[in-house]
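Module 6 notes. Inverse folding takes a fixed backbone as the condition and produces residue identities as the prediction. Think of it as a translation problem where the source language is geometry and the target language is the twenty amino acids. Below is one complete input and output pair. Work through it position by position during the lab.
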C-alpha cells in the first residue's frame, strides 16, 4: 500500500496477478497492447445528416461514445503509478490542436474534464470550448508551463523531470500540476481523419498517467463481406488503440471497445 493517498485516484484491490503486473512490466510501452477497430460509420453519418445531428461533428460523436464507455466500463479508467494500480477519480480526455492548419501552425494540447452524466450536447459544448481556447492567441496553462521550463538549461530540465517523477511515484505531486496536465487524463486522442490521414498506432507516454491512446483515421469507402459471403461498400473508419494492459485484461478491453462501437452507431440513443 502507498504511504500517501493520490489526488486523482484510489488504490484498486486487485487480485495477485494484477498486482504483480506492474513489477513484471515497469513501463507503459513495455505493457502496450495494440488494437485496431474497423467500424461501419454509415449509421453515424446518417444521424449527423439528420435534424437530430445538426451542429454535431464526427469527433463529438466519437468522444461521447468513449465517455459512455468509460462510465459503464470503469476498468478502462485506471492507471499505474509507483507499481500500484489506481482507479481514476475523474473522467478526462486530451488531444492536440493546431492553432493554424498549416505546416508552421503551432501545436498545443487541451484537456477536457467530463461528468459521468454528460450527454452528447454537453460533450459538444466542452469540446468546442476547449478547441476555441486551444486555438486562441493566449497561451494555455500547459503552454505557459512549457515556456518557462524550456528556457532552463538542459541538465536542469532533466533534474526537474526526475523530481517530478519522484514526487508522482510517492503520490506527493501537487494537484495543481496534475489537474491541467493533458498527460494525466483517461484517454489521449489524435483525430488525423480531420486532415485526411489514415490512423497509425501511437506510443504511450511514460510521463503522466494516460493508459489509452486512440488515433482516429479518415472516413473512407471500403468493401465489407458478411457471414453469407455477400459484399457491399460502406463508409468506414479505422480507430487504432494503444492501451496499457496492466490496467485491465485484453478481454475486458476488447468488450469495452466493442460496446463503444455500438454507442458510435447510435449517438442519439
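Target side of the pair, the amino acids:
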Amino acid at each position: 500500500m502507498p504511504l500517501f493517498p493520490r489526488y486523482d485516484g484510489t488504490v484498486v484491490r486487485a487480485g495477485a496477478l494484477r498486482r504483480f503486473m506492474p513489477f513484471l512490466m515497469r513501463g507503459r510501452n513495455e505493457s502496450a497492447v495494440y488494437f485496431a477497430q474497423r467500424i461501419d460509420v454509415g449509421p453515424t453519418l446518417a444521424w449527423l445528416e439528420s435534424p437530430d445531428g445538426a451542429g454535431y461533428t464526427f469527433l463529438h460523436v466519437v468522444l461521447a461514445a468513449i465517455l459512455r464507455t468509460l462510465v459503464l466500463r470503469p476498468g478502462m479508467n485506471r492507471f499505474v503509478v509507483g507499481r500500484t494500480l489506481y482507479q481514476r477519480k475523474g473522467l478526462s480526455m486530451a488531444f492536440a490542436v493546431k492553432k493554424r492548419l498549416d505546416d508552421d501552425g503551432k501545436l498545443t494540447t487541451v484537456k477536457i474534464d467530463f461528468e459521468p452524466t454528460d450527454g452528447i450536447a454537453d460533450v459538444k459544448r466542452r469540446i468546442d470550448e476547449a478547441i476555441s481556447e486551444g486555438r486562441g492567441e493566449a497561451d494555455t496553462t500547459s503552454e505557459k508551463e512549457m515556456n518557462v521550463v524550456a528556457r532552463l538549461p538542459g541538465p536542469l530540465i532533466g533534474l526537474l523531470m526526475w523530481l517530478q517523477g519522484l514526487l508522482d511515484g510517492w503520490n506527493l505531486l501537487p494537484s495543481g500540476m496534475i489537474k491541467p496536465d493533458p498527460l494525466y487524463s483517461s484517454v489521449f486522442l489524435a483525430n488525423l481523419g480531420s486532415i485526411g490521414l489514415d490512423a497509425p498506432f501511437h506510443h504511450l507516454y511514460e510521463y503522466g498517467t494516460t493508459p489509452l491512446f486512440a488515433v482516429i483515421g479518415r472516413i473512407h469507402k471500403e468493401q465489407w463481406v458478411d457471414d453469407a459471403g455477400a459484399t457491399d461498400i460502406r463508409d468506414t473508419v479505422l480507430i487504432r488503440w494503444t492501451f496499457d494492459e496492466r490496467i485491465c485484461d485484453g478481454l475486458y478491453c476488447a468488450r469495452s471497445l466493442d460496446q463503444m462501437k455500438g454507442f458510435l452507431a447510435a449517438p442519439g440513443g
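Reference fact for the lab report: The chain is about 35% helix and 25% strand.
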